[in-house]
What does this fold into?
Amino acid sequence: DAGVTQSPTHLIKTRGQQVTLRCSPKSGHDTVSWYQQALGQGPQFIFQYYEEEERQRGNFPDRFSGHQFPNYSSELNVNALLLGDSALYLCASSPREDQASSYNSPLHFGNGTRLTVT
Amino acid sequence: KQEVTQIPAALSVPEGENLVLNCSFTDSAIYNLQWFRQDPGKGLTSLLLIQSSQREQTSGRLNASLDKSSGRSTLYIAASQPGDSATYLCAVTTQGGSEKLVFGKGTKLTVNP
It folds into this structure.
């Protein structure tokens, strides 16, 4: 049973460019959340997707956008990259919110995509 | 706004020692609290999840406690091993229908052989 998979593992971009990161959730999970982890910091919540819609959003600008596909996989897009966007981007999946067990189930994280903006 | 603080930021201990990591949060209206482990450059591995109605959870050499009213949690690691070296992160799920996690900055643990 594959866990959460993310691609690519590493990425180097130039300031001003755009980037797309991809995530496939754990089998049986249909809710995907994205987190940004700067060096030496804890992860910060970007947004969450469920039923192909953005359900919750953290304190991130509109340059950060996402998408969820019918197979529950998800993409994170960042436009007009800034040096400060350099971070580890983590994807996490979980079962549906309205399932009784959802708050008892830990989030499952992927290994992340390391984005470096030069 | 929920804030999570972890103390200490870093900890170095000799192999075999028992140790405690601390986590505090400002808003006690939580669904659950999770402890994660993160190896350098890697993702997060969930170690223990404590529901808001629970006081503690145990897994092997790990024991996590939760005092929701005081906004505190501890992670106890017994008989530490070099393989336990990693960053340990504490995170809470706040009430309000969201599964958003709020994380602390973590405690970097080094266990010396």
In short: The two ends of chain B are 41 Å apart (CA to CA). The CA atoms of residues 51 and 113 of chain B lie 35 Å apart.
